């Protein structure tokens, strides 16, 4: 069975839909602003030979969440989210009708994981009303891009099943657990939890289980793993590329033939449903459909997934990883961060101090120069300047405890011979020498511009020489 590819990312290729790929709603806004572009994308996938196309309603559940992005936030005319859902469903149906593929190409109503929440119970109930009122309801509901196995997820699935339509579930999972669009993993190992959940979904009445929104090289091993737990139809539809501030960045070098080769491997592992998520285009689906025609699901287990998991021999030891270095050839793992202690009463380094430290460290600031650190606090900047090779660092602070803390940390990092510290009030202080580098990371509270100034200093709400870092 062939599922369609990305809808939101495909919209960005058309002139009328080029601005439709808003990340929070993932193209759902196009149903309001450029429905013709949505219809065109659906037609392309129907013509590509898909057995199932999904509506452009992925972000609808997000739009009605209490703190979610709004479809109507910048519009003068009222927008009812259920009308948006109806339009999404009808446009997909229209594409199927126009290409005379009724009875051959099903329509899946797409929803994202935001229906998995306490407040979404009412949203699901209203969606059931929407489906019941339509002359041509969707053929199934595709609840996709799920991640966590939460207590509320089962309730959301039961609510969707109660609408009387088949429900497909799709998760962002690989053999390492939760998986993101860049292939990053989080959450730690979970053993059989996902597999056992698959069996529970089958017993609840779910019609199919799929994997989506992960890189294609992370798909291997998932179908064979899930087959150990469930007899549900299984499918995969990964991404090609990633989202950036300039829109979707498509994976170069992966054309239709390359995607079809990957689809054959998923099929050999047992995938019964194959399609594509973001970045997968009609030409990828056409090629995959042609190559998969006449094939049957296999029972292969990828060799790399078998090592250490299914009794196979362990792989040969990997070559030692090359050290991670910066442009100055300094080793960055482990990061050579100064050994610092934070004494009682001294403010610990904050975000601004860490940003300043990163710049001082990265650029090698202070080498062979005389440096001044104003508001030294724990000495994070003074110590790094000395570690960078400063000839001498003078650290100033208004608090005796911070000065003592800086000197102690200079000693801890073997730079005490090049760091001196002094408790001073910066306003009357007169430098006794010239400094080539001056650093400061000072915490300052907002100052009332209308406050009465009774001296040459800022009002007491200021803090130009307060202890920081």
Question: Would you kindly provide a brief summary of this structure?
Answer:
With 469 residues, the chain is an alpha/beta fold.
Fold and architecture overview:
This protein is α/β, with parallel strands linked by helices and 469 residues long. It has two domains: 8-306, Homocysteine-binding-like domain (TIM Barrel, Alpha-Beta Barrel), CATH 3.20.20.330; 327-469, Rossmann fold, CATH 3.40.50. It is 32% helix and 14% strand. It has 15 helices and 16 strands. The chain has helices spanning 8-11, 30-33, 35-47, 60-64, 81-98, 120-133, 151-161, 193-204, 222-227, 256-269, 282-292, 303-306, 351-363, 380-387, 400-412; strands at 52-54, 106-111, 140-146, 167-171, 173-174, 177-179, 185-186, 208-212, 234-237, 242-244, 247-249, 273-274, 370-374, 392-397, 419-423, 437-440. Strands 1-2-3-4-8-9-12 form a seven-stranded parallel β-sheet. A four-stranded parallel β-sheet has the order 15-14-13-16, with helices on one face. It has a three-stranded antiparallel β-sheet with strand order 5-6-7, with no helix packed on it.
What structural class do you assign from the helix and strand content? alpha/beta
Low-confidence stretches: 306-314, 452-469
**Percent helix range:** 25-40%
Provide mean pLDDT, rounded. 86
Strand content: 5-15%
Arrangement of strands in the largest sheet? 1-2-3-4-8-9-12
Count of runs of 4 or more consecutive helical residues? 15
Q: What distance separates the N and C termini?
A: 60 Å
Tell me the CATH architecture of the largest domain. Answer: Alpha-Beta Barrel
Radius of gyration based on Cα positions: 30 Å
Q: Could you state the CATH homologous superfamily of the largest domain?
A: Homocysteine-binding-like domain
CATH-derived topology of the largest domain: TIM Barrel
The biggest beta sheet, please? 7 strands, parallel
Shape designation = elongated
Number of domains: 2
CATH class of the largest domain: Alpha Beta
């Amino acid at each position: 069975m062939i599922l369609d590819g990305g809808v939101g990312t495909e919209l960005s290729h058309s002139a009328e839909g080029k601005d439709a790929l808003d990340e929070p709603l993932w193209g759902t806004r196009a149903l309001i602003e450029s429905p013709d572009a949505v219809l065109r994308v659906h037609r392309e996938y129907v013509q590509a030979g898909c057995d199932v196309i999904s509506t452009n309603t992925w972000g609808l559940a997000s739009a009605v969440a209490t703190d979610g992005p709004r479809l109507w936030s910048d519009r003068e005319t009222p927008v009812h989210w259920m009308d948006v859902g109806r339009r999404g469903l009808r446009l997909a149906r229209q594409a199927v009708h126009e290409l005379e593929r009724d009875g051959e190409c099903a329509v899946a109503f797409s929803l994202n994981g935001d229906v998995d929440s306490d407040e979404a119970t009412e949203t699901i109930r209203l969606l059931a009303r929407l489906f019941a009122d339509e002359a041509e309801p969707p053929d199934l509901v595709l609840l996709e891009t799920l991640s966590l196995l939460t207590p509320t997820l089962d309730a959301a699935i039961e609510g969707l099943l109660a609408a009387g339509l088949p429900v497909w579930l799709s998760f962002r999972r690989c053999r390492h657990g939760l998986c993101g669009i860049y292939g990053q993993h989080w959450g730690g190992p979970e053993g059989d939890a996902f597999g056992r959940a698959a069996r529970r979904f089958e017993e609840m009445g779910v019609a199919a289980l799929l994997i989506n929104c992960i890189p294609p090289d992370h798909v291997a091993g998932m179908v064979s793993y899930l087959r150990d737990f469930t007899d549900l139809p299984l499918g995969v539809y990964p991404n090609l590329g990633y989202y950036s501030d300039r829109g979707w960045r498509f994976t170069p070098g992966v054309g239709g033939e390359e995607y079809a080769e990957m689809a054959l491997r998923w099929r050999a592992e047992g995938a019964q449903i194959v399609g594509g998520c973001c970045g997968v285009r009609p030409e990828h689906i056409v090629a995959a459909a042609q190559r998969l025609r006449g094939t049957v699901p296999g029972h292969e287990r990828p060799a790399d997934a078998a090592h250490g998991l299914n009794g196979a021999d362990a792989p040969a030891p990997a070559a030692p990883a090359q050290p991670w270095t910066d442009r100055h050839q300094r080793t960055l793992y482990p990061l050579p961060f100064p050994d610092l202690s934070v004494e009682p009463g001294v403010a610990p380094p904050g975000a601004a101090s860490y940003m300043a430290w990163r710049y001082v460290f990265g650029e090698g600031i202070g080498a062979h120069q005389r440096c001044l650190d104003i508001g030294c606090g724990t000495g994070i900047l003074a110590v790094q300047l000395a570690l960078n090779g400063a000839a001498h660092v003078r650290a100033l602070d208004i608090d005796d405890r911070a000065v003592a803390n800086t000197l102690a940390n200079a000693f801890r990092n073997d730079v005490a011979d090049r760091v001196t510290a002094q408790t001073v009030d910066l306003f009357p202080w007169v430098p006794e020498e010239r400094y080539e580098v001056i650093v400061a990371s000072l915490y300052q509270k907002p100052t009332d511009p209308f406050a009465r100034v009774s001296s040459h200093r800022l009002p007491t709400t200021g803090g130009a020489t307060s202890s920081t870092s």
